[in-house]
Write a structure and sequence with these properties.
single chain, 340 residues, alpha/beta, Quinone Oxidoreductase, Chain A, domain 1, Rossmann fold, 2 domains, 7-stranded mixed β-sheet, 9 helices
Length: 340
């Protein structure tokens, strides 16, 4: 392939206060320089949309430096090496990493999370069930949640890219699963596609009563993707010795803690429970371990997935807001079609 001369990109235009909207980004075209020694050019094929992107563009840093105004939006992407002057990356290699919301990316290897070796499976899975979503579910549940056969595992955003994998892995471990999702369509998806024993629609109200009915012996493991009122209701149902995995805070509009609200200390004390945060990047040295096992489950049909794919880089700017509005059914990806 002849390397392209221009590269379409999505850049951060202004700093959002809360969830980033389409107007906070801009589409731009940039000249693509020649690759230098020990660099290679990646043709991005799929761009990922993650809840964590809200934190990446926030004014206050969390676990990573905020994306700068005018910079290409930080994003995971999967694609193919089309030109290389790097001894460890050859033309034709499939890769996944922090390659940004852009059509092409030049890398020296430092932005690459892994080479994609699962040639028999779709490349898009490297951004979902065989990417950070699946790895997050795997280590969050197994290492932090430590489920035991017979445990009741409750998962918020049960039909999402992470939550759907958590529920299925919990079933593989011999657990009973209860998913929490927004709306009847997502609840039915959690049950029929991802095998949850029960699904609770938090939008229908009465979540505390529904949890009591669904978890008569309490909650042994809670995989928390939301925080907020949903988690307040689940914490009240914890069983003795419960484990709470904090994976996300999707329902919290601001990074500042609320001035009032339920406190967790009494629940943790009386129930001798423990709560721990999860950041998947801490497990980077073990990614291949997780992905090998996840890929095996996908191949034999024991781990199902759903993708919500939108075509065209012009759909990137509004994608994060759409994610937080719950408009996706499955892992949201942007698929690129190149004309260079």
């Amino acid at each position: 392939m002849i390397p392209p001369r221009t590269n379409r990109q999505v850049r951060l235009k202004s700093r959002p206060n809360g969830i980033p909207q389409a107007e906070h980004f801009e589409l731009a075209a940039a000249d693509l320089p020649e690759i230098a020694d020990r660099q290679f050019l990646v043709r991005n094929e799929y761009l990922s949309v993650e809840p964590a992107m809200r934190g990446w563009v926030a004014a206050v840093a969390n676990y990573s430096k905020p994306v700068g105004i005018g910079e290409v939006m930080r994003a995971f992407a999967a694609g193919t090496v089309v030109a290389s002057r790097h001894p460890e990356y050859r033309e034709g290699d499939a890769v996944m990493g922090l390659l940004g919301w852009q059509e092409f990316a030049i890398s020296d290897g430092s932005t690459i999370t892994r080479k994609v070796y699962e040639k028999d499976l779709p490349l898009s899975l490297s951004l979902g069930v065989l990417g950070l979503n699946g790895v997050t579910a795997y280590f969050g549940l197994l290492d932090v949640g430590q489920p035991r056969p017979g445990d009741t595992v409750v998962v918020s955003t049960a039909a999402g890219a992470v939550g759907s994998a958590v529920g299925q892995i919990a079933k593989l471990m011999g657990c009973r699963t209860v998913g929490i999702a927004g709306g009847p369509v997502k609840c039915e998806l959690a049950r029929s596609a991802f095998g949850y024993d029960e699904a609770i629609d938090y939008k229908a109200g009465g979540i505390a009563e529904a949890l009591t009915r669904a978890c008569p012996n309490g909650v042994n493991v809670y995989f928390d993707n939301t925080a907020g009122a949903i988690s307040d209701a689940v914490l009240a149902q914890l069983a003795i010795g419960a484990r709470v995995v904090i994976c996300g805070t999707a329902s919290v509009a601001s990074w500042d803690p609320p001035p009032t609200g339920p406190r967790v200390e009494r629940h943790l004390l009386v129930k001798r429970a423990r709560m721990a945060g999860l950041l998947v990047f801490d497990y980077q040295h073990r990614y291949e371990e997780a992905i090998a096992r996840l890929a095996g489950w996908v191949r034999d049909g024991r781990l199902r997935y759903r993708e919500d794919i939108v075509d065209g880089i012009e759909n990137c700017p509004g994608a994060i807001a759409e994610l937080y509005r719950g408009e996706n059914l499955g892992k949201r990806l942007i698929r690129l079609s190149h004309t260079n």
